[in-house]
């Protein structure tokens, strides 16, 4: 057949028409729509049997009970555990987002050894051997005290094991990071004696006077505080909030009393003065005062007269007087210290001044007041076996009183003041003031071992990383230790098989101890950590393992003496460092975390664009302070420690002259191989801009904020 | 009374703004429950998927008289004018991809039917609807935490709060299995409600006088005397709805002791507020 | 080279010159096509749209081209139904412009939706309450009508017309064109209207919402009326531009005057209705929802009262007046100014009814949302313009679009 143009055209048109009327088109259209509903790159979660497992969250000291919903062996949702004595079903955003930590891109997937500026994966056996060899060397040199450890907290079995390892090794150098827990203990030690802590009965108080404590911003045991605060409405309890910024707590309070930054101690003492002057104190309570009550009273009348206090604090004299009377006349008043989350810098002067208010009105160990309790001692470790090296080393005094002094000593000495350092569950290279100097100190310590789960700022400085299970993968006792009126010990349980080649930090410590042999190994007779935990909690293990928690004490302790000698010595108020005109203060935001772990991608997602915009941090200042700087414009913030480019948020809730910057941003969780871009490289770490200021007498870093100036970018 | 119980459900919520702390638990609980994705930069709130979004309101006064309050905003599950189920979004969707559950009062969204025209988003004055501008992506391994109860959405479709409809289904299934006709109040609670550490959110059936939400809201079943489109106005003087005057008839109610907060719930001409603030539904049906 | 295809007796530029011109415009077209594929394959994150601006530049462009393409249905209505015979001299061109506008509108919609492969759900799962459903049905149907209206003109090509079948087909189609013109006018009335309805029914958006007649808000009628009024303006404007580019007179003045006069009266009646609508909305509708007029035009850096004045007075009343008065209408400069203003006015109206609606905050604590389109959006919006230029150029070169061309260029 000859194919001419006409027949070709005809054929072509025919074919087109044929296909058009055939079902091919319809079928393809339908198929394409089905395909778009099942794109292979959009995950399809596998279904399975639903179960719930109870555990305890240990992301923060709050220690809330959680219920983990699982589909077969996959946890898919974390919720609050109903009837748990701390949080009764409530839960905070970080706990809910806990599953994101399991699969965090910055998680350390196996033990790592630093080689140059890179990390190499090594086996657990090799890692433990390297650590044990290094420690054995230090011991051989006869200076076991040069092994130090920085942990997040004092209490709990894992900290206990670290302390035990150090002691049997021969070192007293166990440190914890500043936290509300440590401040409670420092205050209790100064005013009521060693081995005690303080708790606040917020849920029963009818008048909470908060000196900047972020009751609904992560202070204490956050969910417990949320509940106590929410119940105020029904209980008709009042909350007065004293701080320079209209925080969420201040906004939610019955009254916000703006105060010049760093003068809360002075206001507290001024209130004490009014109470004393007007005879509004509880004379039964003051009978228990020792250490120079009359001397203190005289100092207060002299230095903290109404007009003087008003001048120092910026609070009107009439308001101070009214407030003092209101507080003293309340049925169950309680004064609460701790700026924001309560783990930032604090002076003992302020802690003691605020707590003296409690003591004066006689609310100690009364319902709705403050409880002075013995430290939560539920662990029964068997006696250590100590060899002579251990005895000699352990008897030496600590290199520094607190972490800050340790860092200072290490940086100051030309010979290594510390030969080896363990860092567990904390991130000092991020969360201490002036992290640059912390990193410098870490650089001077020949051997740093991190037990972190994530490649955070501190882990990056380590020579060896022995990665820990996250709280969802391990068994651990979790004592509540955040000023909670009840002493509760919870049990964190593994809800999933370990996702990576990590270990329970307790197991890592036991392995190291065993590798060190001798008396050290003898002191760690347990095969595994789980056995150890059952053994050392034997007194409460049955109910702990069965109920998931044990309430150790629930209510006030016994009456106690009050030592006011620290204040009676008339300590000076710590001034912010520098000569600039403005003061930079940290802001604690519930949606961010400023110590330990980094906020999750979900939590970062909830952060307002008036806090973080792109990778720019947003600072708050009163329009009166702005002087030509525009809202959403950029500026350079300078402090004596450095400067940063910041975005401006003009906020009427800031006291003029004060600049607020959020804590918990500016993380750098990225190396060549790993990065968590969802939470990393966002904003500025405020600690870079603030240097430590040590309070004489207490030795605490008391730098609440720093002087600053701001100029156009 | 009995008859009222047999009526269709009308699930709704009342949020106590005096208790809300702005902590963000509801937002994260929602994200985790409903497989909401996240991306590197979520600071552009105009393309950040947050079925539950918490707004910060201020009274606009200068230091030190400033006050702030947080206002959580899930989908308002509007009943539309006269509460007939023609919510602003449902009536405009060309492909019936969003629909009104007359038995629940819940505004649904069918992801696999939505073809992404975004008309519903333009129609919603609450900005409760979100578009998947990107493919949802989870870091390697993280997809293991996804819940099978809610399918992850594909790029190019609109999504929004469903009042955790899958929880309603689960509760109903349990009731059916146990031979009960209906579910108990506590059996069906949204993820934000159960997560709120301050207990600021109360969820339940607005039609059921035994439910707490009904007792707080006291919804007026009759049309508002001032605006015939408005049904279910609260007879509690401290309770308000967002943009009630538009006649959208949302099922999210807000509670606040503070007048300035209640005033920000809607728009008022000069002088109108003083007149309106004391008008709380018909008193005759109390 | 291609002289065999060029209508008999018509003078056209040389083929190389034509090719170069087309090539330049094609480059722009390809840029747009590239952007279009980016949007399809990478998704709408390529745009600067966001959850506040679900409707943005594209939907404006869509509404604008449909509005200015309204010249086709209205001229068709006048020519075939109302038998205004002179308009036969411009009807072909009006149809081509309409065809370009409507095909562009469909293309834009295909790019704009998040799931283009499911776009047909609008027909399959149609929601009869949705104005957009009405738009989709009428738009598709009217596009088919426009295609049918365009075909006879294509068949008149010198070579195609040699085939007896096509010759007869063209002839017979002309005969029944009134039926299609009537269908087109009917469809067009509805979809222009329903596009207006898209905004008017948004009772959650006080800036957009209007009261109305039965299910149709006033914007429904205003959109239809305005498309009919300003569409011919655009047809005449493009005709003028084509005349300038080709350097030839293509349509006799009396035809232009007639259509301009009709357009002028349509504009005047429309703008009167629009002013009444605006006043009623500003004085009654919006205040009943708690909004004052100032809420919509202050407190932001772009949308001021200027946009209202520009749309209604400068680009509405002014061109209307110019075109209804003989002296000004027949003044070539003023007439062109009127066409330009009219075209801007209708486009501005569509802008306001799409983008300003999205920009205005409704919740008292919400803020204005402003938006700047991404280059991908701009490129895909220019794409139809380039496509239109190419199609007009080809049609003009090879088809007898202007019946009066030969007579006027002897």
Summarize the SSE layout with pairings.
The complex is a heterotrimer of chains A (713), B (286) and C (410).
Chain A: H1 5-21, H2 24-37, E1 50-56, E2 65-71, E3 74-80, H3 93-96, H4 98-102, E4 112-115, E5 118-121, H5 124-140, E6 147-151, H6 157-169, E7 174-176, H7 180-192, E8 196-200, E9 207-210, H8 222-230, H9 232-235, E10 238-242, H10 248-252, E11 255-257, H11 264-277, H12 283-286, E12 289-290, H13 293-303, H14 306-313, H15 317-329, E13 333-336, H16 348-360, E14 370-374, H17 388-395, H18 403-412, E15 420-424, H19 428-431, H20 435-444, E16 447-450, E17 464-465, E18 476-479, E19 486-492, H21 505-516, H22 518-522, H23 529-536, H24 541-547, E20 549-554, E21 562-563, H25 565-568, E22 582-587, H26 601-606, E23 612-613, E24 616-621, H27 623-626, E25 634-639, E26 642-650, E27 658-662, E28 706-712
Parallel strand pairs in A: 6-7, 6-15, 9-10, 9-13, 10-11, 12-21, 15-16, 16-17, 22-27, 24-26
Antiparallel strand pairs in A: 1-2, 2-3, 4-5, 4-17, 8-14, 18-19, 19-20, 22-28, 23-24, 24-27, 25-26, 25-28
Chain B: H1 2-6, E1 11-16, H2 25-33, E2 53-58, E3 68-73, H3 88-92, E4 98-100, E5 107-109, H4 119-123, E6 130-131, E7 158-159, H5 165-177, H6 191-195, E8 201-205, H7 212-217, E9 239-241, E10 252-255, H8 259-263, H9 272-276
Parallel strand pairs in B: 1-10
Antiparallel strand pairs in B: 1-8, 2-3, 4-5, 6-7, 9-10
Chain C: H1 15-42, H2 57-68, H3 70-81, H4 88-112, H5 121-124, H6 131-155, H7 164-200, E1 212-213, E2 216-217, H8 218-246, H9 253-288, H10 293-297, H11 305-324, H12 326-329, H13 332-359, H14 375-398, H15 405-408
Antiparallel strand pairs in C: 1-2
Helix pairs in contact in C: 1-14, 2-4, 2-13, 3-4, 3-7, 3-8, 4-6, 4-14, 6-7, 7-8, 8-9, 8-13, 9-11, 11-13
């Amino acid at each position: 057949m000859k194919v001419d143009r006409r027949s070709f055209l005809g054929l072509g048109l025919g074919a087109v028409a044929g296909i058009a009327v055939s079902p091919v088109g319809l079928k393809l259209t339908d198929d394409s729509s089905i395909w778009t509903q099942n794109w292979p790159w959009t995950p399809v979660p596998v279904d399975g049997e639903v179960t719930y497992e109870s555990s305890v969250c240990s992301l923060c000291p709050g220690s809330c009970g959680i219920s983990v919903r699982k589909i077969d062996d996959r946890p898919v949702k974390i919720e609050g555990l109903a009837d748990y004595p701390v949080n009764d079903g409530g839960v905070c955003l970080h706990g809910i987002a806990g599953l994101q930590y399991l699969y965090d891109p910055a998680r350390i997937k196996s033990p790592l050894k630093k080689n140059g500026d890179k990390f190499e994966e090594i086996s657990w056996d090799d890692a433990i051997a390297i650590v044990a060899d290094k420690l054995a060397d230090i011991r051989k040199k006869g200076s076991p005290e040069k092994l130090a450890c920085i942990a997040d907290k004092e209490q709990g079995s894992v900290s206990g094991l670290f302390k035990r390892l150090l002691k049997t090794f021969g070192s007293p150098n166990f440190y914890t990071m500043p936290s509300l827990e440590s401040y409670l203990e420092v205050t209790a030690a100064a005013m009521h004696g060693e081995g005690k802590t303080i708790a606040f009965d917020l849920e029963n108080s009818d008048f909470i006077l908060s000196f900047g404590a972020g009751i609904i911003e992560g202070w204490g045991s956050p969910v417990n505080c949320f509940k106590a605060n929410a119940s105020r409405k029904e209980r008709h309890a009042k909350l007065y909030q004293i701080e320079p910024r209209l925080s969420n707590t201040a906004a939610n309070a019955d009254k916000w009393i703006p105060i010049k930054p760093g003068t809360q101690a002075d206001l507290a003492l001024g209130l004490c003065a009014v109470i004393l002057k007007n005879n509004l104190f509880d004379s039964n309570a003051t009978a228990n005062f020792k250490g120079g009550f009359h001397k203190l009273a005289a100092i207060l009348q002299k230095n903290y007269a109404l007009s003087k206090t008003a001048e120092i604090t910026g609070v009107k004299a009439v308001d101070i007087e009214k407030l003092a009377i209101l507080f003293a006349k309340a049925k169950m008043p309680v004064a609460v210290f701790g700026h924001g989350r309560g783990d930032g810098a604090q002076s003992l002067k302020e802690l003691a001044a605020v707590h003296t208010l409690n003591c004066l009105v006689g609310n100690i160990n009364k319902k709705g007041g403050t409880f002075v309790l013995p430290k939560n001692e539920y662990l029964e470790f068997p006696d250590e076996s100590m060899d002579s090296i251990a005895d000699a080393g352990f008897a030496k005094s600590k290199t520094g009183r607190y972490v800050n002094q340790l860092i200072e000593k290490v940086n100051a000495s030309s010979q290594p003041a510390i030969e080896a350092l363990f860092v567990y569950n904390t991130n000092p290279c991020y969360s201490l003031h002036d992290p640059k100097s912390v990193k410098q100190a870490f650089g001077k310590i020949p051997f740093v071992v991190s037990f972190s789960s994530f490649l955070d700022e501190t882990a990056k400085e380590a020579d060896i990383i022995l990665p820990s299970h996250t709280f969802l993968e391990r068994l651990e006792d979790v004592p509540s230790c955040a000023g909670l009126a009840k002493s509760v010990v919870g049990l964190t349980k593994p809800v999933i098989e370990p996702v990576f080649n990590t270990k329970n930090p307790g197991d890592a410590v036991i392995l190291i101890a065993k590798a060190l042999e001798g008396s050290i190994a003898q002191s760690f007779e347990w095969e595994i950590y789980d056995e150890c935990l059952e053994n050392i909690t034997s007194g409460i293990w049955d109910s702990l393992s069965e109920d998931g928690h044990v309430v150790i004490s629930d209510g006030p302790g016994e009456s106690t003496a009050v030592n006011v000698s620290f204040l009676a010595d008339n300590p000076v108020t710590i001034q912010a460092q520098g000569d600039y005109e403005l003061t930079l203060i940290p802001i604690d935001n519930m949606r961010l975390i400023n110590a330990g772990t980094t906020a999750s991608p979900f939590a970062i997602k909830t952060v307002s664009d008036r806090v973080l915009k792109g990778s720019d941090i947003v600072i708050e200042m009163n329009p009166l302070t702005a002087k030509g700087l525009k809202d959403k414009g950029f500026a350079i913030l300078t402090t004596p420690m450095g400067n940063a480019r910041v975005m401006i948020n003009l906020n009427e809730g800031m006291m003029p002259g004060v600049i607020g910057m959020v804590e918990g941003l500016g993380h750098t969780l990225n190396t060549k191989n790993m990065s968590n871009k969802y939470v990393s490289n966002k904003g500025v770490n405020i600690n870079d801009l603030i240097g430590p200021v040590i309070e004489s007498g207490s030795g605490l870093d008391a730098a609440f904020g720093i002087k600053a100036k701001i100029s156009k970018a | 009374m009995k008859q009222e119980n047999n009526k269709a459900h009308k699930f709704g919520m009342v949020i106590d703004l005096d208790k809300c702390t702005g902590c963000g638990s509801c937002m994260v609980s929602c994200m985790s429950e409903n497989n909401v994705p996240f991306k590197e930069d979520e600071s552009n709130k105009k393309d950040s998927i947050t079925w539950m979004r918490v707004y910060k309101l201020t009274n606009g006064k200068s230091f030190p008289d400033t006050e702030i309050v947080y206002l959580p905003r899930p989908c308002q599950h509007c009943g539309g004018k006269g509460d007939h189920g023609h919510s602003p979004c449902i009536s405009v969707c060309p492909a019936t991809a969003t629909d009104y559950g007359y038995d629940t009062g819940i505004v649904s969204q069918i992801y696999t039917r939505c073809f992404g025209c975004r008309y519903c988003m333009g129609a919603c004055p609450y900005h409760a609807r979100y578009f998947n501008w990107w493919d949802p992506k989870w870091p390697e391994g993280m997809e293991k935490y996804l819940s099978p109860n809610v399918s992850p959405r594909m790029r190019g479709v609109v999504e929004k709060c469903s009042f955790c409809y899958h929880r309603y289904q689960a509760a109903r299934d349990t009731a059916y299995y146990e031979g009960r006709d209906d579910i108990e109040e506590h059996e069906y609670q949204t993820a934000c409600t159960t997560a709120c550490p301050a207990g600021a959110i109360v969820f339940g059936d607005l039609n059921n006088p035994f439910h707490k939400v009904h007792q707080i809201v006291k919804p007026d079943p009759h049309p508002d005397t001032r605006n015939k489109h408005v049904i279910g106005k609260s007879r509690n003087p401290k309770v308000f709805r967002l943009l009630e005057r538009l006649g959208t008839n949302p099922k999210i109610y807000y509670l606040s002791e503070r007048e300035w907060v209640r005033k920000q719930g809607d728009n008022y001409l000069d002088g109108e507020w003083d007149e309106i603030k004391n008008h709380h539904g018909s008193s005759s049906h109390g | 080279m291609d002289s065999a295809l060029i209508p008999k007796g018509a003078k056209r530029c040389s083929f190389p010159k034509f090719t170069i011109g087309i090539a330049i415009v094609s480059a722009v077209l390809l840029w747009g096509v590239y952007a279009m594929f980016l949007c399809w394959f990478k998704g709408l994150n390529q745009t600067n749209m966001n959850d506040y601006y679900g409707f943005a530049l594209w939907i404006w462009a869509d509404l604008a081209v449909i509005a200015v393409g309204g010249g086709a249905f209205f001229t068709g209505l006048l020519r075939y139904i109302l038998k205004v015979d002179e308009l036969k001299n411009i009807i072909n061109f009006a149809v081509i412009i309409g065809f370009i506008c409507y095909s562009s509108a469909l293309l834009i919609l295909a790019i704009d939706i998040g799931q283009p492969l499911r776009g047909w759900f609008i027909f399959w799962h149609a929601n009869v309450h949705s104005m957009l459903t009405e738009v989709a049905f009428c738009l598709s149907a009217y596009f088919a009508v426009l295609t049918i209206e365009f075909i006879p003109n294509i068949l008149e090509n010198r070579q195609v017309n040699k085939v007896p079948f096509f010759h007869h087909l063209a002839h017979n189609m002309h005969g029944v064109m009134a039926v299609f013109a009537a269908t087109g006018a009917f469809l067009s009335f509805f979809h222009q209207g329903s596009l207006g309805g898209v905004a008017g029914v948004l009772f959650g958006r006080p800036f957009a919402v209007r009261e109305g007649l039965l299910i149709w808000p006033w914007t429904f009628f205003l959109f239809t009326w305005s498309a009919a009024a300003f569409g011919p303006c655009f047809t005449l404007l493009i005709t003028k531009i084509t005349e300038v580019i080709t350097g030839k007179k293509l349509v006799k003045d009396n035809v232009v005057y007639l259509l301009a006069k009709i357009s002028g009266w349509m504009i005047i009646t429309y703008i009167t209705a629009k002013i009444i609508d605006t006043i009623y909305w500003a004085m009654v509708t919006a205040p009943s929802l708690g909004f004052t007029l100032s809420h919509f035009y202050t407190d932001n850096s772009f949308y001021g009262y200027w946009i209202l004045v520009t749309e209604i007075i400068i680009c509405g009343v002014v061109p209307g007046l110019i075109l209804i008065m003989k002296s000004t209408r027949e003044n070539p400069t003023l007439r062109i100014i009127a066409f330009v203003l009219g075209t801007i006015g209708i486009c501005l109206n569509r802008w306001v009814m799409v983008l300003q609606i999205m920009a205005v905050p409704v919740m008292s604590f919400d803020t204005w949302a402003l938006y700047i389109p991404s280059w991908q959006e701009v490129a895909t919006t220019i794409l139809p313009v380039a496509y239109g230029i190419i199609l007009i150029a080809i049609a003009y070169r090879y088809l007898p679009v202007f019946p009066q061309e030969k007579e006027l260029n002897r």
